């Protein structure tokens, strides 16, 4: 198991490796942002390794398919309509299962996947208990079957007829959108259908032979990114996705970019389709011409520094790319 370095240790090592120069103040600020990115990248790499471990376990279950099915406990879950083990009366040791009631599903294929993957619940619990940044772990399959831990209120949160392959946490990793069969960080944050608010997801397609059996996933709450990472730096940072939409940021930096305050999603109805950040949080759609010019400079022209004139104020903004996710980290000098 890897030992996680602290933010301040990474910062110290980065500063110690640099020679002092006339731009020492800028260099120190830059090192602090790079330390932030390095810590985030270190943890995200560990998540990829964790997700790979789950795929390895599933591959072993399918390799021993006959014996696993022969020994399977067929009474572990009680299916009630389109779900099993739904909160508030859930067994906390088990996942919640979602089995949408839609045409042309194959009950035998669903039952086989359910029984084959029952042993994965223990590994799902371990992942959640050992990784504070992961809010939930799950998989979706084209046979129309979803297994998710920790358990949630599927009875009221999900409509009974949702196509689980119609969401970005499945299709961004499918055969068409991910022909290289690699792990995928979703391109945009979205509202989690089962109550976790704004999340970003890491996806891992699981193939048995040449058949895509399922897409494994971890969800990371945007609140966790704020509390676990952004809180460790004094820099006024804003994290953007590849499309220029805000993922998370410090309140003062959000204000400086002429954006409305970020609020977590409050559920007033079930989520029946992909739900992304509204356009008001995309810098390309900003009401401010200066902000639109800035984001074009960064994302379209490849620039890394911009003097932003917003109202009566001016801010020096530096941009840093996080290669693993494609995110852009803006450091707003306020």
Any chance you could write out the topology, listing elements then pairs?
Blueprint: H1 7-16, H2 24-63, H3 65-71, E1 79-80, E2 83-84, E3 96-98, H4 107-117, H5 120-130, E4 136-141, E5 145-149, H6 154-157, H7 168-171, E6 184-185, E7 190-191, E8 198-208, E9 211-221, H8 222-228, E10 237-240, E11 246-249, H9 251-256, H10 289-299, E12 305-310, E13 313-322, E14 327-333
Antiparallel strand pairs: 1-2, 2-3, 3-5, 4-5, 4-9, 6-8, 7-8, 8-9, 10-11, 10-14, 12-13, 13-14
Helix pairs in contact: 1-2, 2-5
Description:
Keywords: Coiled coil. Residues 37-64 form a coiled coil. The longest helix is centred in the first third of the chain and has 40 residues, at 24-63. This protein has a domain at 64-222: 2-Layer Sandwich (Beta-Lactamase), CATH 3.30.450. Strands 1, 2, 3, 4, 5, 6, 7, 8 and 9 form a nine-stranded antiparallel sheet that branches. The chain is 33% helix and 22% strand. It is α+β, with helices and mostly antiparallel strands. It is elongated, with a radius of gyration of 22 Å. Mean pLDDT is 88; it is low at 265-276.
């Amino acid at each position: 198991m890897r030992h996680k370095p602290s933010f301040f240790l990474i910062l110290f090592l980065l500063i110690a490796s640099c020679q002092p120069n006339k731009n020492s103040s800028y260099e120190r600020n830059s090192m602090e942002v790079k330390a932030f990115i390095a810590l985030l990248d270190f943890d995200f790499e560990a998540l990829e390794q964790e997700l790979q471990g789950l795929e390895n376990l599933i591959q072993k279950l399918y390799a021993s398919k006959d014996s696993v099915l022969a020994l399977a406990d067929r009474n572990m879950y009680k299916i009630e309509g389109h779900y099993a083990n739904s909160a508030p009366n859930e067994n906390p040791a088990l996942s919640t299962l979602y089995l949408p009631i839609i045409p042309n599903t194959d009950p035998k294929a669903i039952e086989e996947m359910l029984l084959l993957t029952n042993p994965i619940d223990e590994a799902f619990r371990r992942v959640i208990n050992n990784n504070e940044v992961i809010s939930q772990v799950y998989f979706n399959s084209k046979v129309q079957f979803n297994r998710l831990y920790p358990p949630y209120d599927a009875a009221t949160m999900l409509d009974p007829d949702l196509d689980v392959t119609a969401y970005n946490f499945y299709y961004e990793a499918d055969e068409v959108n991910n022909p290289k069969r690699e792990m995928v960080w979703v391109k945009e944050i979205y509202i989690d259908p089962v109550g976790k608010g704004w999340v970003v997801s890491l996806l891992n397609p699981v193939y048995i032979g040449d058949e895509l059996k399922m897409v494994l996933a971890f969800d990371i709450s945007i609140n966790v990114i704020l509390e676990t990472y952004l809180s460790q730096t004094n820099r006024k940072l804003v994290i953007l996705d590849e499309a220029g939409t805000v993922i998370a940021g410090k309140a003062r930096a959000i204000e400086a970019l002429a954006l409305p305050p970020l609020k977590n999603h409050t559920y007033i109805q079930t989520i029946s389709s992909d739900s992304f950040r509204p356009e008001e949080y995309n810098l390309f759609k900003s009401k401010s011409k200066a902000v639109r010019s800035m984001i074009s400079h960064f994302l379209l022209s490849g620039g890394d520094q911009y003097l932003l004139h917003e109202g009566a104020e001016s801010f020096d903004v530096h941009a840093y790319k996080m290669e693993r996710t494609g995110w852009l980290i803006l450091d707003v000098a306020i």
